[in-house]
Amino acid sequence: GGHTTEILRLLENLSNAYSPRHYIIADTDEMSAHRIHSFERSRADRDPSTMAPKYCIHLIPRSREVQQSWLSTVFTTLYSMWLSFPLTHRIKPDLVLCNGPGTCVPICISALLLGILGIKKVIIVYVESICRVEHLSLSGKILFHLSDYFIVQWPALKEKYPKSVYLGRIV
Fold first, then answer.
1. Total-model pTM
2. Which SUPFAM superfamilies match (predicted)?
3. Are 128 and 100 in contact (CB under 8 A)?
4. Which of 152, 61, 147 is nearest to 111 (CA)?
5. b or e along 20-36 (b: 16 or more beta carbons within 10 Å of the residue's beta carbon)?
6. Would you say 54 and 20 are in contact if contact means Cβ atoms under 8 Å apart?
7. What is d(CA 65, CA 152) in angstroms, rounded to the nearest whole number?
8. What stretches in the chain show pLDDT beneath 70?
9. Which of 145, 146, 64, 70 is nearest to 101 (CA)?
10. What residues have CB less than 8 Å from 3, skipping those under 6 apart?
């Protein structure tokens, strides 16, 4: 959906130095997987030096389904974190770039744990969705305190959250 569109727009300008790319999506999100495959094929077609796209798609359980009760969200988020940490430990990313779906919270916490445990410092960049004009999303409220760079796309959010970085509309 919208988060996938936004992250793929951000990735259009990402250097090939960030390769292979690892996409982590909810295990029930088939549409995003199709869009990622299409994006990566298109990216490879534009860059003749790329023989084959260098990316992987990983699936984790959603932290919260639409209409899910807030109380049960605690348990599904913990379960998602339980499965995210081994994945993050195996990949050991240099950078986690995320933009808002609840799926990114367990991944970011797992990446943060890699640094806390002395395994690897991972840079976490969170880009708040362009549809968030005056208030942060729930993921944004959580990751505002955990990310290395917190990017907003509206001046009103920059005023409310001075630690954030305002670059204008980037998607």
1. 0.89
2. UDP-Glycosyltransferase/glycogen phosphorylase
3. yes
4. 147
5. ebbbbbbeebeebbebb
6. yes
7. 25
8. 1, 48-53
9. 64
10. 99, 100, 101, 129
Asked if the peptide bond before residue 101 counts as cis, ω within 30 degrees of 0, the response is: no
The tens digit of pLDDT for each residue in 9-57 reads 989 888 888 889 999 999 988 899 999 999 999 988 887 666 666 899 9
Helices (H), the chain: 2-11, 30-46, 70-91, 104-116, 138-143, 155-160
* Residues ≥6 apart with Cβ < 8 Å to 100: 3, 6, 126, 127, 128, 129, 132, 137, 139, 140
Q: Show the tokens assigned to 170.
A: 């980037």
The CA-atom distances, in angstroms, between 145 and each of 62, 100, 126 are: 21, 14, 11
- Residue 105 tokens read as 């919270």
Domains, the chain, ordered by start: 2-166 (3.40.50)
The token duo for 81 is 């974190």
Residue with tokens 């029930």: 28
What is the rounded CA–CA span in Å between residue 89 and residue 84? Answer: 8
